[in-house]
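hi! just following up on the protien thing from before. the input was this:
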Amino acid sequence: MSKFIDNLGFMALDKRHSQIYKVSMINLKNGDVYYDLDYFFQTDVKVCPQGASKKDIELLPCTGHKDMNGKSLFKGAIIKFNDELYEVCYNDLNGFMIANTKTWMSAVHADDCSEIVGNIFENDDLKKEVRG
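and the predicted 3d structure came back as:
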């Protein structure tokens, strides 16, 4: 068995710069995470460059659901569903959910009938709107 897992359903958040990257590979032996630096040339770069530590990185799992445009829904995404904004969340008790200040429901409700409009890491205005 290979010591690498690739083509994963994860994004990686670099908390230092609030940048999100597609994870291309995880080294199971040492825990290193790699992301796609360049989608055209598929250049893999460690997620922890230039002195960053692994605590600066948060893996954002995919829900397994897609929006109406075929984009995968990841933890932290902000979606428009039934003319309201929701955050894609995860907790151990309920799994993936969509939530705002008024309500929450299973993420399955948003499958194919929602649209990703941003995320909580890069869009402070949308984050404030969805969280109140």
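The chain has two domains: 4-58, 63-131.
Confidence is low (pLDDT under 50) at residues 1-7, 39-43.
cheers
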